[in-house]
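Input record (one chain):
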Amino acid sequence: MNVALTGSLVLVGAGKMGGAMLEGWLKSGVDPKKIVVLDPFVSDDMKALLSKHKVSLNPAVAGIGNAEVVSIAVKPQMMEEVLPTIIGLGAAKPLILSVAAGKTIASFERHFGKTAAIIRTIPNTPASIGRGITAMSANPNVSAKQLQLATELLSAIGEVVTVDREELIDCVTAVSGSGPAYVFYMTECLAAAAEKLGLPPALANQLARATVAGSGELMRASGIDAATLRQNVTSPKGTTHAALQILMAEDGLGPLFEKAVKAAAKRSKELAS
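The corresponding structure, as predicted from the sequence alone:
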């Protein structure tokens, strides 16, 4: 990746998600001299990484006069405390790139103004290993060049997609944002079922984890759609077929997932501010 930055890339918050983005940028070749990190509570490991790459940490905000992108990765509950301290960065008319869950574009416009270029995103936790997927929605002030720049920066932690209406971010949150937890819980359930069949707990967990992880990698690497992969492993009247008769019943996994995803989307709308 060759991100063409003309100004500074300011990262506000270097916790789990912000830290994953930073590591992705550095690995992808972003010039560390153009990165500025603002976070008074960085971990010792993060301090070591910043020191190694000579990334600027917590300079005076007033001295950052050429901010091109301000990536905000602080916890939503800290947002109203943090944003007033960085308002001065808006003087350079940067792109405001938020990875904070539940914070709407309007909430950033209240701080940076109606003319500010703002992109709201929802990444997910596999971003920590560069295998996430991030959906983004932009306000009308974002230029095509800024949209491309945001895509390049977010590509450092995985795939990037765009939704044309901000309200769809709630739907994305319910699918990919919360989705890793659904997969982890499914893995727990598979392991628990294996134990009830008599397998030792450690073996049950190993089998479940490897099966879920391997199946996901097969789906990614092959590019084959999930339905075809399912059909490929299902022999007529065989063991998989017998299990799928339960999982694909009218009261099976499909309706349950629909109900769960709807609940997550509803809650995402309730939390948005």
